[in-house]
């Protein structure tokens, strides 16, 4: 008995005395921003082409959200100017005047062309506005050449039925409770959010970087979720990635150091 | 001719045997650098740790643990390409080490994310 104790304590002492071959340490890996925003002293979140559901003014909401996120989490200087009614400026030539001059600052609160983009396929003709360097240079000139953030936001109701896995309580003959996975057919509805963020050099009108995301959310068909709540829920998912375009991120984890 | 071959073989063995204590000394010196580096890293002194592990791999280029630790230090510094190379070397030298494998798996997640960001 005594010998066993001695052996055990010797083993413990050996472990404590440095026989362990590994040490777990916390690490924080910095990830560089995707875009070097250092040449710009300010950021102008100008406005977005909006498409899909009319329940949410995605242009206005996206501008508000991104401005506050860039200000609070990105630590950037934001230009708090009026939101550009981009849909009007981006109207394809066949539908109206070509997009040449930016609308005056203090633009219309409600986008006159809103609702024109019902389907994703309708977007490309409007998205040509992002290639219009003269237009963006003029917008930039108004604010002393900031980094312009613009793009498109397609937000549309979505519905999908199918089998979902749920957990169900079952009781055996002895009355013992257990939980088992069950597959059930369910009608589900929700929303798809497909934003494209375009970063433009306000000094030249040139596109520096663009990125497209796609997120979707589905709820039980009986559940009633307001479109605006779903919009914010979906935007929440992609905000870290959006912010990482302009500011560096740190990923925390742990690793094993070896002897 | 066979005598010459024997002579050459003997010379090779002789060189190898005489080099063995030197190799052992290098490993010992590298080990002490590795341990010093671990203490530094535990105290958050990652630059010092990096220096120590770089010294360790210079002293003994077959020391998998030193490469593993160096890779972690590069990760901590955001030098992902260098981290990748050091992990690769560690895995090459000690392919069965589960700690190295685990570190590499965790690193891959971050590296994929970073390279995905850069490619978009």
pLDDT averaged residue by residue of chain A: 83
Biggest sheet overview of chain A = 5 strands, mixed
Kindly report the greatest chain-chain contact and the residue count on each side: A-B, 21 and 29 residues
Tell me the count of domains of chain A: 1
The gross shape of chain A turns out to be: flat
Specify the CATH class of chain A. Alpha Beta
Total number of strands of chain A: 7
- Measure the end-to-end span of chain B: 66 Å
Low-confidence stretches of chain A: 6-18, 96-100, 104-113
Which architecture of chain B would the CATH scheme give at its second level?
Answer: Alpha Horseshoe
Order of helices and strands of chain A: HEEHHHHEEEEHE
Notes on the protein architecture:
The complex is a heterodimer of chains A (259) and B (120). Chain A is of the alpha+beta class and 259 residues long. Chain A has helices spanning 2-19, 58-72, 86-89, 123-127, 133-142, 227-246, and strands at 22-31, 43-52, 147-171, 177-201, 207-212, 215-220, 249-258. The longest helix of chain A is centred in the C-terminal third of the chain and has 20 residues, at 227-246. The two termini of chain A are 34 Å apart. Chain B has one domain (7-119): Tetratricopeptide repeat domain (Serine Threonine Protein Phosphatase 5, Tetratricopeptide repeat), CATH 1.25.40.10. In chain B, 87% of the residues lie in helices and 0% in strands. Chain B has helices spanning 2-42, 46-59, 64-76, 80-93, 98-119. Chain B is globular, with a radius of gyration of 19 Å.
């Amino acid at each position: 008995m005594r010998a066993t104790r001695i052996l055990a304590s010797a083993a413990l002492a050996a472990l404590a005395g440095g026989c362990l071959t590994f040490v777990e340490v916390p690490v924080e890996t910095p990830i560089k921003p995707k875009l070097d925003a250092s040449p710009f002293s300010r950021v102008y979140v100008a406005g977005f082409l909006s498409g899909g559901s009319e329940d949410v003014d995605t242009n206005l909401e996206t501008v508000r959200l991104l401005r506050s996120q860039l200000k609070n989490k990105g630590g950037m200087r934001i230009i708090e100017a009026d939101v550009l009614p981009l849909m009007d400026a981006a109207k394809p030539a066949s539908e109206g005047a070509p997009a040449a001059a930016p609308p005056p600052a203090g633009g219309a609160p409600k986008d006159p062309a809103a609702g024109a983009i019902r389907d994703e396929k309708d977007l490309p003709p409007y998205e040509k506005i992002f290639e219009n360097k003269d237009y963006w240079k003029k917008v930039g000139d108004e604010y002393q050449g900031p980094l312009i953030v613009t793009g498109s936001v397609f937000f549309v109701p979505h519905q999908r039925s199918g089998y979902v896995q749920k957990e169900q309580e079952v009781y055996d003959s002895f009355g013992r409770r257990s939980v088992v996975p069950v597959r059930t057919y369910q009608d589900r509805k929700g929303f798809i959010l497909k934003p494209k963020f375009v970063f433009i050099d306000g000094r030249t009108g040139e596109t520096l970087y663009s990125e497209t995301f796609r997120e979707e959310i589905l709820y039980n068909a009986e559940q009633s979720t307001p479109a605006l709540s779903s919009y914010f829920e979906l935007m929440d998912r992609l905000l870290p990635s959006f912010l990482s375009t302009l500011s560096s991120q740190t990923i925390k984890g742990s690793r094993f150091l070896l002897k | 001719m066979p005598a010459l071959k024997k002579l050459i073989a003997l010379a090779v063995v002789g060189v190898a045997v005489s080099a063995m204590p030197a190799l052992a000394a290098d490993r010992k010196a590298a080990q002490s650098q590795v341990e010093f580096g671990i203490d530094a890293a535990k105290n958050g002194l990652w630059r010092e740790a990096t220096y120590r592990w770089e010294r360790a791999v210079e002293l003994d280029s077959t020391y998998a643990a030193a490469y593993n630790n160096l890779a972690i230090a590069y990760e901590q510094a955001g030098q992902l390409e260098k981290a990748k190379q050091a992990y690769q070397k560690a895995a090459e030298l000690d392919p069965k080490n589960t700690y190295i494998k685990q570190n590499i798996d965790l690193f891959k997640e971050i590296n994929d994310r970073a390279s995905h960001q850069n490619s978009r």
